Amino acid sequence: MSFVFTPPATVSVPVVGLVERFPVNRIYCVGRNYEEHAKEMGFTGREPPFFFLKPANALVVIEEGQTGSMPYPSMTQNFHHEIELVVAIGTGGKNIKAADAMKHIYGYAVGLDMTRRDLQNEAKKLGRPWDIGKGFDHSAPIGPITRVADAGDIENAEIYVQVNGQDRQRSDTSKLIWNIAESIEHLSAAWELQPGDLIMSGTPAGVAAVVAGDTLMGGVAGIGTLKVNVI
Ligand code: MN
Question: How many angstroms does the Cα of residue 62 sit away from the middle of ligand 1?
Fold first, then answer.
């Protein structure tokens, strides 16, 4: 097969302990999935789950033991961090029941759902799509994927992010409103999940702005850590 121009390379994430990499297909994100974060955004935390997407090439892939670099994006004065547990789908499917969901998971990673909050808030107010606030270039730093068998108890894992060594977000994945299995059930009712899909599972309270020169260090217990500089 030939193309009218060279197609972009497949975006991929390293897998801890393997030479082979995880090829990324789509990135789904769960909105407002920790009650205290829903409240800080002005909601009660008692709504059904909802989803948005980022393009796969929005990832800033951080190799094991490395520090990533993320450019401060255009058009914002309020660039927010959202630390998230990322679920990597290994086996696709549609209408997956929560009871069967965990066997579709390949592994887990630590990620940041970076947000141009001012643009997202404007979109909300005007009833417009969130893409400009959420799906921009370099909006999704991610660390290596830890395979399920090597991961800790991800249902009861501390999740945190520090900026320049100071705590910004610190919570526990047990506080997810819709847990991983339930999120997969809802998501796969709307889309047929495919191998390579990533799910950013939501962020706890404490979202706030970063500026150029800041260093973010985040983690999920049993999965690892992620370090990225805003440049
Ligand atoms: Mn998020």
Answer: 19
- CA–centroid distance, 3 to ligand 1, in Å, is 36
Ligand 1 geometric centre to CA of 142 (Å): 13
Contact between 187 and 29 under an 8 Å Cβ cutoff? The reply is: no
Indicate the domain borders of the chain.
14-230
**68 CA → ligand 1 middle, Å:** 19
CA–CA gap between residue 128 and residue 58 (Å, rounded) = 20
70-113 pLDDT, tens digit per residue, is 999 999 999 999 999 999 999 999 999 999 999 999 999 999 99
| Distance, CA of 138 to CA of 53 (rounded, Å) | 14
* pTM, two decimal places: 0.97
User: In this structure, are residues 14 and 145 in contact, taking their beta carbons and an 8 Å threshold?
Assistant: yes
Q: 110 φ, ψ to 5°?
A: -95, 130
Tell me, in angstroms, the distance from the centre of ligand 1 to residue 186's CA. Answer: 17
First vs last C-alpha separation in the chain: 39
Alpha carbon of 30 to ligand 1 centroid (Å)? 6
How many other CB atoms are found less than 10 A from the CB of residue 28?
A: 21
Return the CATH superfamily for domain 14-230.
Fumarylacetoacetase-like, C-terminal domain (3.90.850.10)
Residues 6+ apart with CB under 8 A from 180: 85, 87, 101, 102, 105, 154, 155, 199, 201
